[in-house]
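# nightly structure sweep
# worker-07 picked up a monomer target from the shared queue
# config: single-sequence mode, recycle default, output format = structure tokens
# input follows
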Amino acid sequence: MLKPDKVKRAADNKSFDELLSDVLLRLLKVNPRNIDSEIRQSIMDIGEHYRVDRVDLRKFSEDRSMMTLLHWWVRSSEIGQSADLPNDQIPWAASLILRGEAIRIGRLADMPAEAAAGRAMMERDGLCAALLVPVMVDGQLFGVFALVSQEEREWSDKVVRELQMLGDAVAVADIQAQLHNSV
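# output follows
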């Protein structure tokens, strides 16, 4: 049976508004030299809030053929993570994200046949559910922000919207860090 995402909130019951406020304040007020550690802390807070096992931000390559892992958090070192993910290894998911669509995977068994490669990757890593949302910066597709769980679960429309806001904020902070590091 799928567990509603409402039940899976962190023990401290921090509301989404509080989480968003904390993340935005942390990322906006940080000294640029410390931005990477603040992004890591923000992603960890997001993972704890949603009680998931992995959170990651990936950026598309310029030619859109690859998703490179920029920032991540995992609850346990036993959870698999790949740094670079060629889109041809997960064509179903990549095509949806490139079209700007969120992907909700509540149970591996419910994934369509064309998602077989992604399902096999999740099975190999011991994962059962995922929510992937496209991340936009200045109206352009930047990459994908993902929550991943070792337990089956449902992803509500509200959580999709929340994750899109959080993903966009983290991506903007990453761009600011890259700009600061290039100066």
